[in-house]
Amino acid sequence: MDASSRRAVLATLGSAATALAGCGAFGKRRVRVLVAGSLQKAASETLQSRTDAELAVEARGSVQAARLVAEEKRDPAIVALADPALFERLMSTPWHAVVASNEMVLAYNPDTDGGERVEAARRWFAPLRDGSVSLGRTDPTLDPLGYRTLFVLDLAADYYDEPGLADAVLSPEQTYPETQLLAQFETGAVDAAFVYRSMAVERDYPFREFPPELSLGDPAHADRYRTVSYELPDGTVARGGPIEYGAVRRDDSPRTRTAFEAVLASDWLTPHGFTVREEYPRLVGDVPDALTR
After folding, report:
1. 38 CB contacts (<8 Å, ≥6 apart)?
2. Greatest C-alpha distance within the chain
């Protein structure tokens, strides 16, 4: 085989591989699902077990995920994000479904000296402020967990009368991708991390709960949460509020409809520490008439 023929064969094989990238066993077409990092395990394991459709799950920080879709760098059939506001703000999606809620907590590694200090502290922020604990968090420019960490600290500064708390606690080297944050406990890189309750539950790590005025998990304190905000690099503003997760279906194929029905059922989220309220799924916006609830 000469070089030109070999290149032609490789090109053909490459095209075939690209075509099959969205296919499962025996060429069965998969449903591409792009989810928030905190949904990765729930989607890959429990959601998959709740539907006959074969899922191809990719996890990213929600801001990054929304941008990838908006910039046409990803074309998933289903998108599930940790902040429903991103559907309108970054993706210009005319509708979405709200499927779950969560709350912020401070997880800690009970096997490190720093983790023990977090566990024993009268006020959870004291060992973070004095620098005796290595802390992990996510990048607020990439996902809501990052800017919600800032919200918790801003609310805490007022709640505890501790001006400048965020500046005292945070530093640039603390940021990790959401999908890798708690794995830093295993490597010993961090003693504690600002995470969603669901993330700590999934990995069976102990955590300090925040007062409901700070946790972003109690709708009764929505007005207080709305007093904090964060401006993203593109100039859009993320505002505080009770944490909710949303999802949208981006095509009407039978396999996608089947998978999205499982998403709306929300029972795939409860075992992973998410809160599923009676009002969910809550449909928002110009919802398609044919949507199966």
Report:
1. 82, 102, 145, 178, 195, 196, 198, 199
2. 77
Contact 196, 243 (CB under 8 A): yes
Contact of 63 with 86, CB cutoff 8 Å: yes
Rounded Cα–Cα distance for residues 79 and 19 (Å): 21
In 3-state terms, what secondary structure has residue 24? coil
Give yes or no for a contact between 35 and 62, defined as CB atoms under 8 angstroms apart: no
Spatial separation of the C-alpha atoms in residues 280 and 166, rounded to whole Å: 34
Residue 168: count of CB within 10 angstroms of its CB: 16
CB count in 10 Å sphere of residue 222: 12
SS3 93: coil
- Closest to 250 measured CA to CA, from 109, 66, 102: 66
Tell if the pTM clears 0.85, that is, is over it. yes
CA 108, 113, 117: angle at the middle one, nearest 5?
65
Cα separations (Å) of 67 from 97, 144, 213? Answer: 19, 13, 31
Cα–Cα distance for residue pair 90/87, rounded to 1 Å: 6
Residues 6+ apart with CB under 8 A from 278: none
Angle at the Cα of 264 (from 260 to 270), degrees rounded to 5? 125
- Residue 155: phi and psi, rounded to 5, are -65, -40
What phi and psi values does residue 210 have, to the nearest 5 degrees? Answer: -95, 155
Model confidence over 18-46: pLDDT tens digits?
A: 333 445 544 457 999 999 999 999 999 99
Residue 93 CB neighbour total at 10 angstroms: 22
Under DSSP, the state recorded for 276 is: -
Question: In degrees, to the nearest 5, what angle opens at C-alpha 265 toward C-alphas 259 and 269?
Answer: 95
237-268 pLDDT, tens per residue? 999 999 999 999 999 999 999 999 999 999 99
Backbone angles phi, psi at 78, to 5 degrees: -135, 135
